[in-house]
Amino acid sequence: MSxxxxxxxxxxxxxxxxxxxxxxxxxxxxxxxxxxxxxVARTGVFSAAAFQFVxxxxxxxxxxxxxxxxxxxxxxxxxxxxxxxxxxxxxxxGWIGQASCGCLGSKVSVNPWWMFAIDxxxxxxxxxxxxxxxxxxxxxxxxxxxxGIGLGIYLLVLGAxxxxxxxxxxxxDAALAGMRHERLSVNPPLIDMGQGVPGETRDATVELAxxxxxxxxxxxxxxxxxxxxxxxxxxxIPPGEARSITITMRLPxxxxxxxxxxxxxxxxxxxxxxxxRLTGQISKASx
Length: 287
Description:
Blueprint: H1 3-7, H2 10-37, H3 49-68, H4 72-95, H5 112-128, H6 134-138, H7 140-168, H8 172-179, E1 184-187, E2 190-196, E3 201-210, E4 216-223, E5 228-230, E6 235-237, E7 242-250, E8 256-267, E9 271-282
């Protein structure tokens, strides 16, 4: 039996798309879990809450479609274009030195280059398990109408949800804060310090939003390592307003990825702490 016939065996048509469908559903589930229990890890426009919400809805729809096995030619083509887009985003994030892609929510940190390799593997698997593509051309009119209707329904649902969120909460961030019962939101909760050398000093800015009807006072900051310094304190944030502070960090000495927890001490009906994280990549020092 030739390699081509092995690659195009019926089992490949069945299991590879369904396995990728499960991967998409798992990724969507991890993002949703991160929304509910921890602030979403926003390290760029591709990890912003609004963008992630759109991606979650799309991953769920495509994942269910792939698992169902319906209209294999159409689902295969959409999946191929999706993973090509994902690979492009992962490559860009790795190219600019972003430490985590945010692809799996705030609880799972994945290097963009690893995610790029996974996306390329998915593309290769889809090319191996490609179905008979003749129906795409023979029934192109009906398929185009079906895709148009599906896209219209998808956009209509997204628009309705977005309209409700903005009417009820004012923004996606405020809605997520309400889900988590946050009194003070830290944006971004995951600060990407980028790629640097050991001992290098980096600055970043975070915004603190008061979600209550009373002022909250920031009185200090702590971290799990002595190299992190939090300035611009103390500061009082009026009800419903936001203030920005500067984070100054001396990068760790060990080469590789780092992910450090830091905390703000606040006076909000008693002394409390609000946590956020600092992440980045340390390259080897030049000789």
